[in-house]
Amino acid sequence: MIIPCKQIAEELEKVLKKEVSILKKKKKTIKLVIFLVGSSPEQLSFVKIKQRIAQRIGVKFEFINIKTTPPFEKFVRLIKETSHDPSTTGIIIQQPLPAQLSTDSIYDFIEIKKEIEGHRRKTEFFSPLGLAVLTLFKYLYVHPKADKKLFVDMKTDIGSLKKALKHKKIVIIGRGITGGRPIGKTLTDAKINFVSTNSQTIKPEEYYREADVILTAAGKKVITPDIIKQGAILINVGVRKEKGLLRGDYDEKEVKDVASFYTATPGGIGPLDVLYLYKNLIDAAKMK
């Protein structure tokens, strides 16, 4: 059965739109700034998705597109200037960055209350992608209704989630900065056990066959029905192109009779990821 990510996203978006409206009445400005280095069509499409949602919920949106890779010092200076701008509520840096700019320390140049993706140490924010995964766990194991109660609160929901997942075997495939890594960090913060596999893992299929939940973030086809157990849950994060169409890390037609639940691609966890980005942005506005 397909997990109804679209319906869940629609309900959560209504909540965000209402919260933005309330903040505007209190004369609070809410603006997201996105940095993108390069002009990859795939990255530009991800930015456009974020821009569309910003327009729908009523948030200001600024896109800074640096088409050629700048020196590290120049890039950092621009990030700092933008961060110190009082009109900036939150900043995200579209990943992946070019190799000469790719370092976790890049986030240290964003004010901690404006770094809304949860990269910095001692941040109050959790990864939007990680929160999106927990939302699907909440739907599957705690609150099986597509409504506003699915928004995850790390202070109040973790107890019930930990209890529901205590005896579940969870496997994450991939460890990239836009997939497996932030999911793993969020599950670790929530004290939910999991096994992480990647391209270097020996005989990863042995872990897949025992898994109750598999989170795929590989960006290539890694799951076939013969290597998962009957009733497994599949949540896809990875994206690849096949014959010009977006696909996930498994073929939905192949797994639908084996998996008890699975996400579709496109239209799966992606919209939830973006909505949690804006949830963090709204929380940042409340802190100002």
UniProtKB/TrEMBL annotation:
<dbReference type="Pfam" id="PF00763">
    <property type="entry name" value="THF_DHG_CYH"/>
</dbReference>
<dbReference type="GO" id="GO:0004488">
    <property type="term" value="F:methylenetetrahydrofolate dehydrogenase (NADP+) activity"/>
</dbReference>
<keyword id="KW-0486">Methionine biosynthesis</keyword>
<dbReference type="Pfam" id="PF02882">
    <property type="entry name" value="THF_DHG_CYH_C"/>
</dbReference>
<dbReference type="GO" id="GO:0005829">
    <property type="term" value="C:cytosol"/>
</dbReference>
<dbReference type="GO" id="GO:0004477">
    <property type="term" value="F:methenyltetrahydrofolate cyclohydrolase activity"/>
</dbReference>
<feature type="domain" description="Tetrahydrofolate dehydrogenase/cyclohydrolase NAD(P)-binding">
    <location>
        <begin position="162"/>
        <end position="287"/>
    </location>
</feature>
<dbReference type="InterPro" id="IPR000672">
    <property type="entry name" value="THF_DH/CycHdrlase"/>
</dbReference>
<dbReference type="GO" id="GO:0009086">
    <property type="term" value="P:methionine biosynthetic process"/>
</dbReference>
<keyword id="KW-0521">NADP</keyword>
<keyword id="KW-0658">Purine biosynthesis</keyword>
<dbReference type="GO" id="GO:0006164">
    <property type="term" value="P:purine nucleotide biosynthetic process"/>
</dbReference>
<dbReference type="InterPro" id="IPR046346">
    <property type="entry name" value="Aminoacid_DH-like_N_sf"/>
</dbReference>
<comment type="pathway">
    <text>One-carbon metabolism; tetrahydrofolate interconversion.</text>
</comment>
<dbReference type="InterPro" id="IPR020630">
    <property type="entry name" value="THF_DH/CycHdrlase_cat_dom"/>
</dbReference>
<dbReference type="GO" id="GO:0035999">
    <property type="term" value="P:tetrahydrofolate interconversion"/>
</dbReference>
<protein>
    <recommendedName>
        <fullName>Methenyltetrahydrofolate cyclohydrolase</fullName>
    </recommendedName>
</protein>
<feature type="domain" description="Tetrahydrofolate dehydrogenase/cyclohydrolase catalytic">
    <location>
        <begin position="4"/>
        <end position="117"/>
    </location>
</feature>
<keyword id="KW-0511">Multifunctional enzyme</keyword>
<dbReference type="InterPro" id="IPR036291">
    <property type="entry name" value="NAD(P)-bd_dom_sf"/>
</dbReference>
<keyword id="KW-0560">Oxidoreductase</keyword>
<dbReference type="InterPro" id="IPR020631">
    <property type="entry name" value="THF_DH/CycHdrlase_NAD-bd_dom"/>
</dbReference>
<keyword id="KW-0378">Hydrolase</keyword>
<keyword id="KW-0554">One-carbon metabolism</keyword>
<keyword id="KW-0028">Amino-acid biosynthesis</keyword>
